[in-house]
TrEMBL record:
Signal peptide: none
SUPFAM superfamilies: HAD-like (SSF56784)
Protein name (record): HAD family hydrolase
One GO cellular component term: cytoplasm
GO MF term (any one): phosphatase activity
Lineage, uppermost ranks: Bacteria, Bacillati, Actinomycetota, Actinomycetes, Micrococcales
Length: 334
């Protein structure tokens, strides 16, 4: 069930674990309302820590980009999947172990900072392979990874995102590149990034947070990771997963809150209540009747809230829900 608040969401939590692509920005472009909303939430007392599955960039580079977009950020307010991968490597390897890094500068820096020796060839007999996204990775890089994994190196991936948003559309992500190595070797890598919970736990411990909130645009990474970490999650509709996706979400990917964009941090989140067979959120209502989702009313985000409540209750009760009856529910400014 969706959560509700009687005061602005930013006042309910002490730290926001904020995704980047699709939430704070899209490729190199700003997302409308993101900067001013995050700055206002920080001014209200909410700590910010940007948590990204991108392992190719240094935290300083990410911080500089955010600052340039009007969100003043320091490097210690960024946690990358590269840092999470290095933390995962430390669970099995001693300092000084050799790691073949297949990825960008951010992953190299994180692995070296964790005390490991970075090598560049499978012929160096690495103890592990750490793979993260970098836009210039090629066949030779993937081949070296495959050779090392075939020879027994522990295979660790920074994340398994199949796609990543860019200003031109969705491009292959690290998960797609990992798929090539996996297809060649038959080995499934351990994953450090979202939706695994450790990245969120590391981030919350870094800031000593007791009431963290995860903010993301993807159900399969951000919100599934929030569920795995047992943290509440806010799904904003500015990136990959749509309002319709939220209504149809599997239990392990369901958000705790939904919002059109980051302005929802500064708003209360009304409760959804059941009245007979209808679920109502202010002036919006929804129900599932004979397997069909029916929605009515005003306030498109409230319609999504009511629809989520009706659909999730029906599915969890063992009732049939015909996905084809779930409308687009595209959210626009109310």
């Amino acid at each position: 069930m969706l959560h509700s608040t009687t005061k602005a969401l930013a006042l309910e939590h002490d730290l926001a674990l904020v995704d980047l692509d699709g939430v704070a920005y899209r490729g190199h472009d700003p997302i409308e309302h993101a900067a001013e909303s995050l700055v206002a939430a920080r001014d209200a007392g909410l700590g910010l820590l940007f948590v990204t599955n991108n392992a190719s960039r240094e935290p300083e580079s990410v911080a500089d980009q955010l600052t340039g977009l009007g969100i003043p950020t320091s490097a210690d307010e960024v946690m990358t999947a590269a840092q999470a991968a290095a933390a995962l490597l430390r669970t099995r390897l001693e300092p000084g172990a050799s790691v073949l890094v297949v990825g960008g500068a951010g992953l190299v820096t994180a692995v070296e900072a964790a005390g490991f020796r970075v090598v560049t060839s499978a012929d160096d007999a690495p103890d592990a392979v750490a793979q993260g996204f970098a836009p210039d990775l090629g066949w030779k890089d993937l081949a070296e990874a495959a050779y090392a994994v075939q020879r027994g190196a522990w295979y660790v991936a920074s994340n398994l995102d199949l796609s990543l948003p860019t200003e031109r559309g969705f491009a292959p992500g690290n998960g797609s590149l990992v798929g090539a190595v996996r297809a060649a070797t038959g080995v499934v890598p351990a994953s450090a990034g979202k939706p695994e919970p450790e990245m969120f736990h590391l981030a919350a411990r870094r800031r000593g947070a007791s009431r963290p909130l995860v903010i993301g645009d993807r159900l399969d990474t951000d919100l599934a990771g929030a569920r795995a970490a047992d943290f509440p999650g806010l799904h904003v509709f500015t990136g990959v997963s749509t309002p319709r996706d939220a209504v149809l979400a599997a239990r392990h990917e369901r958000p705790s809150y939904v919002g059109a964009d980051l302005r929802s941090l500064l708003e209360t989140h009304p409760a959804v209540q059941r009245h007979d067979e209808w679920w109502t959120c202010r002036a919006a209502s929804a129900r599932v009747a004979r397997g069909r989702l029916e929605v009515t009313g005003e306030g498109l985000v409230d319609v999504v809230r009511a629809a989520c409540a009706a659909a999730w209750d029906a599915v969890d009760s063992g009732d049939r829900l015909d996905a084809d009856t779930v409308p687009d529910l595209s959210v626009v400014d109310d």
